[in-house]
Specification:
It is a single chain. About 35% of the residues lie in helices and about 15% in strands. It has helices at about 5-10, 25-35, 55-60, 95-110, 125-130, 165, and strands spanning about 45-50, 70-75, 115, 135-145. The protein is α+β, with helices and mostly antiparallel strands. The chain has one domain (about 5-150): NADH Oxidase (3-Layer(aba) Sandwich). Helix 2 (about 25-35) runs antiparallel to helix 4 (about 95-110). The mean pLDDT is about 95. Strands 1-2-4-3 form a four-stranded antiparallel β-sheet, sandwiched between helices.
Length: about 170
Amino acid sequence: MDFAALAAARYSLRKFDPRPVEPEKLALILEAGRNAPTAHNNQPQRIFVLQSPQALEKADACTAAHFRPPVMLAVGYDPSVSWKRETDGKDHGEIDAAIAVTQMMLQAADLGLGTTYVGMFEPEKLLAAFPEMVGTCPIALLPLGYPAEGAHPARLHGDRRPLEELAVTL
């Protein structure tokens, strides 16, 4: 599928098939996150792969979004590594991590898998549940897996503002 078609067809999957994600597909998705562009190439993004029933249960307890995927990626950034803009100190770690999430979402879609960006979670609870994440700033949970039978885009998926409202030529 070409990029424009892929970007238009990708949707937030909220109904997952329980079958596991193949390791080679997961590796490609993680590689897409690793290859994401970052400010000054500092690469502050951190990706935690949650696959065990225990890890998935702990992550599920940190959010009100319960999709029961076979894999959950918890994505954040390391603020000790992220670039800060010199003029005002703006930390670009969250931006860098969000770019990594976007690339992983698109790679997953290209492989026939689905994702949804979950920002509705409790970061402090997630950090307490996963000591391995301490020192990072979590920005998203990314449920990942195959679409379940009957899964479809949300009703508003295709609604887009006119390009003229979003892009201004000067």
